[in-house]
Design goal:
This protein is of the alpha/beta class. It is built from 14 helices and 21 strands. Strands 8-16-15-14-11-9-10 form a 7-stranded mixed sheet, sandwiched between helices. The chain has a 4-stranded mixed sheet with strand order 5-6-7-19. Helix 3 runs antiparallel to helix 11 and helix 12 runs parallel beside helix 14. It starts with a strand and ends with a helix.
């Protein structure tokens, strides 16, 4: 194991740094090829909260950063607009450090993914333990972590069954397939007869985001995401978010298979639904013989202060999609379904090679165990209220700030000007936040483990840069 030693907020610390498997204490030896298989026991180097990471710079950081950015531009398809002067090298909790040793307060959490922050010791212990035992076997065979995770998700939600995949867009693709297959079964036709007709339309809403693969993309609101890849999947209908009259105009018996809605929109600008709207959708779906699908890829698993976003409104769906925070930074997606939906699916109808592998599911089990604790969720609610109160105090006098909104730790600051200059200035000042909506919302989706001091620092930085940028 190698260590780095440098000051961290006034105190020196010796912090384990990742150096292959040398970041673990290995008890026992790998067997020779001909020997009997003995399980490798991997003990994480840190089992309690680690000391603060140090502001350690990479040697010749300027050249290192320039060379890496040049290689990224040379070898990676340019679908992302990344800052050219930042290469993050390590993180801990709600903090990140770049190659220069500069510290950043992370209120983006990898776009609402790192629920436990960076290098959480409990998450690290789960990953290293499972990596030393069994990482992948495919879905041709049973594995313990997958079944354990499915049981936890079902018992903590409305659902009866779980399907695993690898991302949010994959979860929504699966939900589309499940809904269309279910509609064909309900219609009493042979679902494998391509000439047989059944309800197949899918309804989504303004400002929604469901993913970038072709099915999920057809349900996504922003035209600039879709137009370059036209023609899109047929059968997508759009209604106005929070407008039941608009929804009723497109949810039709004999045509609609499912309605997709985010209980709290993230990409769309941090827009929370209402009990009236979701209850109305539930009624419209029931009357039309359609499924109600909640996309909780961003707002689910504790982000809103409840385990699931829909629990704020008391209206259950038939299907719910999950992804971002579920495995604490490893790629995973899940589709939770009622039994009547699960009954429509048969072996061979859908599948995934990597989905639900032991490594990812063991990490996800650790995340769910932590986040589902009622005391943890109550603290997310408290910190979310403190964050919004702090933002209102820091930004309330600025004429370009129209609203601070959100639930739990999914928060948005609505501006009447583009948010990108403010987001860029905040990053330069050491705070990572991102945009949402029409580019006029500052989105804050920090790790759920942020502290009160983190909240105060975030509000101070945003208040200062807003005074400088939004005049």
């Amino acid at each position: 194991m190698t260590t780095s030693v440098a000051p961290g907020r006034g105190a020196q610390s010796t912090v384990p740094r990742l150096d292959g498997l040398r970041n673990t204490q290995v008890l026992g030896r790998l067997p020779a090829p001909s020997s009997r298989r003995v399980r490798l026991c991997v003990k994480p180097a840190a089992t309690a909260a680690p000391a603060r990471q140090a502001e350690v710079s990479t040697p010749n950081a300027t050249k290192f950063t320039a060379d890496l950015v040049a290689d990224e531009q040379k070898y990676i398809v340019q679908t992302y607009a990344r800052p050219s002067n930042i290469v993050f090298t390590h993180g801990e909790g709600a903090r990140l450090w770049d190659a220069y040793g500069k510290e950043y307060l992370d209120f983006a959490a990898g776009i609402a993914v790192n629920a436990l922050g960076h290098t959480d010791p409990r998450w690290l212990a789960a990953v290293t333990e499972q990596a030393g035992s069994l990482a992948h076997v495919s879905n041709l065979f049973h594995s313990v972590p997958q079944v354990k995770l499915a049981k936890k998700l079902v018992e903590a939600s409305f659902a009866d069954k779980t399907f695993f995949c690898n991302s949010g867009t994959e979860a929504n693709e699966a939900a589309i397939k499940f809904a269309r297959k279910w509609a064909r079964v309900q219609a009493g036709i042979d679902p494998y007869n391509k000439d047989a007709q059944a309800p197949s339309e899918l309804v989504s809403f303004t400002a929604c985001f469901h993913g970038r693969t072709m099915g999920a993309l057809a349900l996504t609101y922003k035209e600039q995401y879709k137009t370059p890849f036209s023609p899109g999947m047929p059968g997508a209908q759009l209604a106005t978010y929070l407008d039941l009259e608009s929804a009723a105009s497109v949810i039709k018996k004999g045509k609609t298979a499912a309605v997709f809605v985010e209980p709290i929109q993230g990409e769309g600008g941090i827009n929370a639904s209402t009990q009236e709207f979701l209850a109305g959708l539930r009624q419209l779906c029931d009357e039309a013989g359609a499924l109600l699908v909640y996309d909780e890829v961003q707002c689910g698993l504790g982000r809103s202060g409840k385990l699931w976003g829909y629990q704020h409104f008391g209206v259950e769906p038939d299907i719910m999609t999950l992804a971002k925070p579920l495995a604490g930074g490893l790629p995973i997606g899940a589709v939770l379904v009622k039994q009547h939906v699960a009954d429509a699916m048969k072996p061979g109808d859908h599948g995934s090679t990597f989905a639900g592998n032991p490594l990812v599911c063991h990490a996800a089990n650790a995340v769910v165990d932590i986040v589902a604790d009622p005391a943890f969720l109550a603290d997310v609610t408290r910190k979310g209220e403190a964050l919004r109160a702090g933002l209102r105090e820091a930004l309330g006098s600025n004429p370009h700030v129209q609203e601070v909104r959100g639930l739990g730790l999914i928060c948005g600051v609505q501006l009447d000007v583009p948010a990108t200059p403010l987001v860029d200035a905040a990053r330069d000042a050491g705070l990572i936040v991102i945009t949402a909506g029409k580019g006029d919302v500052v989105r804050l989706v920090p790790p759920l483990i942020i502290t009160d001091d983190d909240i105060k620092q975030c509000c101070q930085i945003l208040g200062k840069v807003a005074d400088e940028m939004l005049t």
